[in-house]
Amino acid sequence: MKPSHIEHIGIAVSNLETAISFYEKVFGLKCYNIEEVAEQQVRTAFFMVGQTKIELLESTDPEGPIGKFIEKKGEGIHHIAFAVEKIEEQLVHAEKMGVKLIDSTPRKGTEGLDIAFLHPKSTYGVLIEICENKKSVGFNSITNQRVK
Ligand code: ZN
Question: Residues 1, 94: contact at Cβ < 8 Å?
């Protein structure tokens, strides 16, 4: 699969505002984006740390995935996201390797990424997301198409 880097680390928090101010005050990081994903019942906040982001996740519904996660495990690291290319091919590859998939086809995530989750039962207990920024390298903003 060869991920190029850790795109982000997702951290489940009970209160987005207090967690944002913690990261800003203690680490001197700047929250540059807040995004709600209604279908995932989550509100997210982003910080850049080098080329890796910290993604804070607050549940908007106790029955949502983050709400359930916090109820079961408390606040903490929820997932790690690897940046990959050709995400569709990576999912086929992972499945061939016997990895259980949560998403067999990519879906739209935050920050305009195409994302898919691998099942933690197949990945040593860590929820791993693979994601692809199809607009990054070689993206032509005029034709709206990839150059390479
Ligand atoms: Zn994520």
Answer: yes
Q: Please give the single-letter amino acid code of residue 131.
A: C
Domains with residue ranges and CATH for the chain: 5-147 (3.10.180.10)
Q: 3-class DSSP state for residue 46?
A: strand
Distance in Å, CA 140 to ligand 1 centroid: 25
109 contact partners, CB below 8 Å, separation of at least 6: 37, 115, 129, 131
pTM: 0.88
Q: Hey, what long-range contacts does 108-112 have (CB within 8 A, 24 or more apart)?
A: 109/37, 110/35, 110/37, 110/44, 110/46, 110/55, 111/33, 111/35, 111/46, 111/53
Which residues sit with Cβ closer than 5 angstroms to ligand 1, an ion? 10, 81, 129
State the distance from the centre of ligand 1 to the C-alpha of 55, rounded, in angstroms. 7
Instruction: Convert the pLDDT of each residue in 62-94 to its tens digit.
Output: 999 999 999 999 999 999 999 999 999 999 999
Query: Over the stretch 9-25, which tens digit does the pLDDT of each residue have?
Result: 999 999 999 999 999 99
Q: How far is the CA of 69 from the centre of ligand 1 (A)?
A: 14
Among residues 100, 102, 132, 128, the alpha carbon closest in space to that of 115 is found at 132
